[in-house]
Structure formats: C-alpha cells, structure tokens
Amino acid sequence: MQKHLNSKNKIKKILFGIATLGLLTFVGTKTVKNINNSNRDNEEEKEEVNKKPQKPTDFTSLAMAHYYPELFIAIEELETYRATPKKHTKEKRYTYWNGLTWVYTVAKNGKIVQHPCVGKWKDMAAGFSREQCEEQFRLHLQFETFKSLKSAINGKSNINHQQIMGLLMLGYQLPGKMAPIANHLNNATNTQQKMDAFKYSLPDNPLWREGTLKRRWWCGAYATGLITVDDLLGLKKDSFSKISLDKVATGIKRNSKGEVLSIEHFKFDTATVQYALNTARTKGDKPIVRDVLNQTAGGRAVIKAIESGTQIDFIIAKSNFDQTDYAKAVTSFRSGDYESAAAGFKKLLETNPNDALLWNDLAASYNELGKYDLALECTGKIFKEIGDRSQYAAAYYNAGVARENLGQYLSALTNYQYAKKNGNKSPDVDAGIARVQKIMAKSAKKQAYNSGTQKVVGRTRQAMDAKNMQIHNSRKYRA
C-alpha cells in the first residue's frame, strides 16, 4: 500500500513472496547490502557482523524451504560442474562444484564464516564430497544469496514466485545483480519487458557477455513461465551454453572482434522456446540433471519435494507483526474500507511502534479518508523518529498526497520529487509532480493577471480622481 490510490489504479494482483508484502505500493528499495562490503574480491576472511550465535532469520528459513528445491535444480543445469577447483581468467578466487567461489565454515557459536576459495580453503574444497558441496551450497544461500534477495525485492509489489526464481538463478553467483533487474521486473507490464529485464546489468568485459546473455535467456524464460522445473530436470547439465544467441535474441550488436555489446530484445515465441529446449536436451555429452541429482540423498530429496508438491507456500514478512492481522488490514484497504484498514494498522502499531511499513500503511489509509494532517503525522514519525530509509520513497509520496490535498502545493511538489529521488518509480509519482506543477503554473498565471489588472485599475482610478478633483474643486470623489 504505502501510497495514495484512486479507483483507477488499484493493484489487481495479490503479491506473493516479497519482503514487505507490497501492500499496493512502489516503495523505495534499500541499496543491496553486499555481505562482502561491496568487494567480492577481497582476499581476507569475512564474517557476519552479528556477534550472537547465528540463527536463520525468518526470511531465510522460509526462503530456504520454498525456493531451495527449484534453485538447486536450476543451478545443476546452469552451472558448469568443477570436480577440482579452477581459477578463471582475471578472477581471484577458484571455482568448485557448481559455481561456488567461497568456502564456508560454522563456528562453535553457530556463526557462519566465509572464506575466499584460495590457498588452504581451495585445498579443502578440492576434497569435498558431493554431499559436502551441497552443504556449502546451503550455507552460501543462507549467508549471502537470500539476504541479497530480500533487499532486492523489498517493496516490489509486481514480482511473483516465478520471477523471484529467475532472479535467484542469475543472482546465485552475483547477488548484487538482483536489485537492478528486480527494478526492471517490477515495472514490466508484458512478457517482452519481463524477458528483457534480464538483459540488463551485464559484465563490463564484452568477452563474457554472450555466455551471460545465453544464461539470462533461461532466467527470463523461467521467470515468465515459458520453461518449468520439470523441463530443467530433463535437460543436460550446462546445456544453456549450447544455444545460439542469434536464435534467442534480436538486434545483436558486436564489436570488431565479434564480441557482443548489446541486444535489442530476447525472443520468447513458441518456436524459440522449443528450439532452446530441444538443443539443451540433445547437444553435448553431459548427463541429464535428474540423473545427477539421483546420485545423492540430498538430490533425491529435492526431486521428491518438487514431484510431491511438499514445498511450503509463504509470504515473506520483513517485520515481526502478526501476518494474519496484517492481511486483514490489507484486505480492508483493497476493498475500500479505509476505516477498518486504519484501525487494523493502528492496532498492529501498538505492539510494533517503530515499524515504518505500518506507519506508511496508516498514512495511506488516512489519505484515503481525507485525514491529511494525521497522514502527515505518520510520515513525520518515519522521518524524524524511525529513520527507516527503505520506507522513505513511500513516505515522501504519502506526504506529497497529503500536502497537495491541503493546498500546500510547493511542499507537495518537493515531497513528490523526493519520493522519486529515493527510488519510487510509480507512475503516480510522475503524475503527482505534473499535476501540482500545472496547478502552480495556473495559479502563477492567475496571480500575474490579477496583478496586471490591479495596476491598470489603479492607473485608471488615479486618472479619474484627478479629473474629479478638477470638476469638484479639488475634492476627491470616487464613484
């Protein structure tokens, strides 16, 4: 929610699987927090900042239960298996198993410690069994991947389960890439735009772009439902690399060396999908993904989870409040019962007074009820007391709506502009800016007209006074 809505633009889809439940809004997104302090090539050992014994967050544990089976299968298909660690050109860490470049250990207090796969850690990785590699995969997801996912999808109300899976498929090795692509996904309105969301944030080196784009086609196809987890189980490992980029993309631009610079669009018609699947099933000499998974108990468990449908469905909640009561308040808002929605959010705030999401939701409810001063109190709480920057984009928008309706147009314009600056890409923000600017321009034009008219009237009256003074023996006379 977190923003004012009119009857023309209420969201028609129920959000599934995002960090803040989405609640009818496009909120500002937190900058993705890289566990490695934005330097993935740092050779020093990195640890979790939390000094207490580590316990998986609610988000992480639920995400593991819900996304792990599909992601495990996708990585088996999309990553090249390394029986022994290998260092790629211009990379500082060795790669082992299916694309892992870190080695994880668990301290006595339960804290996960991340080590770059070099030196003694590379030697350790070389001796891992497949089961141990699978455990490394789980630790990697918990330590890095799911945390970056949570940040990337925070407040993205249009991203569904399939699209999250596409993000995870590309962000498994490069978690920082999920955030910019999630922005494109959230703003996509058709299949073409959803597919093309995965063509962004490519590597700087053109030498790697073609392979990256081939992988991204699979991510986009999965995100849009063109291919399924059952398809992946029947493909050969690493077979994404066998497809021709020219057959799955249009408008390809290359440099003089033949390296890909960019593409115009990804293809997604029936013939293209069939070509990709047939190629992945028949080309190459690597084993079928299903056969590889059946080699270990963990792999067999993944297949069973998929085939039996035992994966749990859930709503990832950023906050600690009761999700059932929250859902009731959301339903009330969506149905137009803003009084009940406001009452629901106020009740939740009694036990969660520092939750900026709830304050934004309450502000949006008050705006709908025409209680604009109360809405401003809510947004002021976020800015002055809580300081949760992930909610600033929505809070500025809510404040803008309130100011506009109170006739405080300059302040409203400033708030709308700050909403946009903080990452709120909703078309309602641009509409608010345009609407207020039009009102202000019209008002300025009217003031200029009135000012000019008053001057003319003043000069006319002065002339009449002078004439009257002559006629009436200098006695000032006004008609």
What's this model, at a glance?
With 479 residues, the protein is mainly alpha-helical.
Q: Based on CA inertia axes, which overall geometry fits?
A: globular
Number of helices: 19
Strand order of the largest sheet: 1-5-4
Structural class of the helix and strand makeup?
mainly alpha
- Rg of Cα set: 29 Å
Spatial gap, N to C terminus: 60 Å
Contiguous runs where pLDDT drops below 50 for at least 5 residues: 2-57, 312-319, 465-479
Q: What would you say this structure looks like, in words?
A:
With 479 residues, the protein is mainly alpha-helical. The chain folds into 2 domains: 137 residues, Serine Threonine Protein Phosphatase 5, Tetratricopeptide repeat (Alpha Horseshoe), CATH 1.25.40; 263 residues, no CATH class. It contains 19 helices and 9 strands. The strands form 4 sheets. The chain has a 3-stranded antiparallel β-sheet, sandwiched between helices. Strands 2-3 form a two-stranded antiparallel sheet. A two-stranded antiparallel sheet has the order 6-9. Strand 7 and strand 8 form a beta hairpin. It starts with 45 loop residues before the first strand and ends in an 8-residue tail after the last helix.
List strands and helices in order, with pairings.
Layout (H helix, E strand, L loop, with lengths): L45 E2 L10 H21 L2 E7 L6 E5 L3 E5 L5 E5 L2 H8 L3 H24 L7 H11 L6 H10 L3 H6 L12 H15 L5 H5 L11 H4 E2 L2 E2 L5 E3 L2 E2 L3 H13 L6 H5 L3 H12 L14 H12 L3 H14 L4 H14 L2 H15 L5 H14 L3 H13 L5 H45 L8
Antiparallel strand pairs: 1-5, 2-3, 4-5, 6-9, 7-8
